[in-house]
Write a structure and sequence with these properties.
Blueprint (H helix, E strand, L loop, with lengths): L1 E7 L4 E8 L2 E5 L6 H9 L3 E6 L11 H8 L2 E5 L9 E3 L4 E4 L2 E7 L8 E7 L8 E5 L20 H14 L9 E4 L17 E2 H7 L8 H9 L8 H11 L11 E3 L10 E4 L3 H6 L6 E2 L6 H8 L6 E4 L3 H12 L6 E5 L2 H7 L8 E3 L1 H10 L4 E4 L3 H6 L1 E2 L3 E2 L18 E4 L4 H12 L5 E4 L2 H7 L4 E2 L4
Parallel strand pairs: 3-4, 4-5, 5-6, 10-11, 13-17, 14-15, 14-16, 16-17, 18-23, 19-21, 19-22, 22-23
Antiparallel strand pairs: 1-2, 2-3, 7-8, 8-9, 9-10, 11-12, 20-24
Length: about 450
């Protein structure tokens, strides 16, 4: 058996190519599908099937384009409600590819149609099977029960289904079975996913907090409490996937725009440069989401899916990359890019703005010097509870726009996250809302802790 995991850090997303004796299947493909076609060709496989473990909401899948380009059949769980023909599978159904058998398990809970796939290699019967769990079972966590596509079920209903899927099906597998989920750390489809991208059933039985022995009622309460908000783009992406996305090459290329072509009252100015470059000079009102890190996920959360977008970068290849990454989360409204970047804006006599960048040592000094300083930690609540800079309070970046009234615009604000990535996006949001004195803490909480500065923790 040939088995390859494709991990996309931008979306914390894992997809898979499995092949045997000239035939292959792709599981949970991302929108840009060339890498699967190229890898299958390199291994002399024909892609026979494209399998989706569920109707994804956090990214746009390439199942339609991949099927059209390869002649493959699209496979979903039988409870999927799609607008195109597909091969429905139910509990116990199997597909064979050469010496490989895919056996399907219905594992609802994250969504009603969710399936998991037990993969066995008949040519090596002593090798452990693999189970592709989609968003039902992650490494260190399990799927959220409150996302779109739940068919009228409440989060409590879905959590109860999830309990059954985990305890009556996945945890019935042998401890040696290898676990391969559809997402890793940072995905909003879970709350505390590990950085590891694979594990075993035995390891998860021991280490996964959501798999500890507990009554169904306790599990349901745990899974439905303190859930982060569902990003608005999830609903759009799920609907795109229900219909099948258009090929990427059908999207129009962005136009090269001069400063006079940009309307700051209409256009969303998306600056994809690193925080330090953004802080030095940027177009007023820009939002900073750097291309490194989980760019696509944060763009989906922080940007409207329909507003006209103008990209600011220092390199043309980054513009193309940004357009493609935005399309992965269903944002197809890029109308152009600032030709020549911020330099062109400045050369045209347009005013640029700056954001102060400070190191953790300077943050400590400012804490000592003034009681007026607001220290805003924009990490997730769990990250914040595990340890934060002394005096910091928490508003997650996902909630910042809705909770901005909790901040005092007349007092200075230092914004911190883990490393300075999310905090830079937060500073750009506050600057756009008229906050005159904001600073981004370079190095973030990671730098604060490594410097040995005082850390506070929240006990629950």
């Amino acid at each position: 058996m040939y088995f390859k995991q494709f991990y996309l850090g931008c979306l914390a997303h894992a997809s898979y190519l499995i092949g045997s004796e000239g035939e292959a299947v792709v599981v949970d493909p991302r929108r840009d599908v060339d890498q699967y076609i190229d890898e299958a060709a390199a291994q002399q496989f024909k892609i026979r099937y494209v399998v989706e473990t569920h109707l994804h909401a956090d990214f746009v899948s390439g199942h339609r384009e991949l099927a059209e380009r390869t002649g493959a059949e699209i496979v979903f769980g039988r409870r999927s409600e799609l607008t195109f023909p597909f091969h429905p599978v139910a509990e116990g159904d199997e597909i064979e590819l050469g010496q490989v058998t895919l056996r399907f398990m219905e594992t609802p809970g994250h969504t009603p149609e969710s399936i998991s796939i037990l993969v066995t290699d008949r040519s090596t019967p002593d090798s452990p099977p693999k189970v592709l769990t989609g968003d039902t079972l992650f490494i260190g966590d399990v799927g959220r029960p409150d996302l779109v596509g739940s068919g009228g079920y409440s989060p409590e209903d879905m959590a109860s289904m999830l309990y059954s899927s985990l305890h009556d099906k996945l945890l019935k597998l042998d401890d040696v079975v290898e676990v391969y989920p559809a997402h890793g750390a940072g995905s909003l489809c879970g709350r505390n996913i590990s950085k590891d991208t694979s594990s075993t059933i035995g390891q998860q039985r021991q280490l996964n907090h959501a798999l500890k022995p507990m009554p169904r009622e306790e599990f349901v309460r745990m899974m439905t409490s303190e859930l982060p908000p569902v990003p608005e783009y999830f609903l759009k992406d799920a609907e795109i996937n229900r219909q099948g996305a258009a090929p990427l090459d059908a999207l129009p290329p962005p136009d090269a725009l001069r400063p006079e072509h940009i309307d700051l009252d209409r256009d969303v100015i998306l600056d994809v440069r690193p925080a330090a470059s953004f802080g030095t000079a940027h177009v007023p009102g820009s939002i900073n989401i750097a291309l490194r890190g989980q760019f696509a996920s944060w763009a989906g959360i922080l940007l409207s899916t329909d507003a006209p977008i103008v990209i600011v970068s220092e390199r043309d290849d980054e513009v193309s990359e940004a357009v493609m990454r935005l399309a992965r989360v269903g944002i197809e409204s890029v109308r152009g890019y600032l030709d020549g970047g911020v330099y062109a804006w400045d050369k045209a006599g347009r005013e640029t703005a700056t954001i102060e960048q400070i190191q953790v040592g300077e943050l400590r000094d400012r804490i000592r010097e003034t009681a007026e300083l607001q220290i805003l930690d924009v990490r997730r609540p769990g990250e914040y509870r595990d340890g934060h800079a002394v005096g910091a309070f928490n508003i997650p970046l996902t909630d910042l726009k809705k909770r901005i009234a909790e901040l005092d615009p007349d007092r200075p604000i230092a914004i911190v996250c883990r490393s300075g990535y999310r905090s830079s996006a937060a500073t750009s949001i506050l600057e756009g809302q008229g906050f005159p004195n904001v600073a981004n803490v370079s190095g973030g909480t990671q730098g604060w802790i490594s410097s040995g500065f005082e850390v506070e923790k929240v006990t629950v």
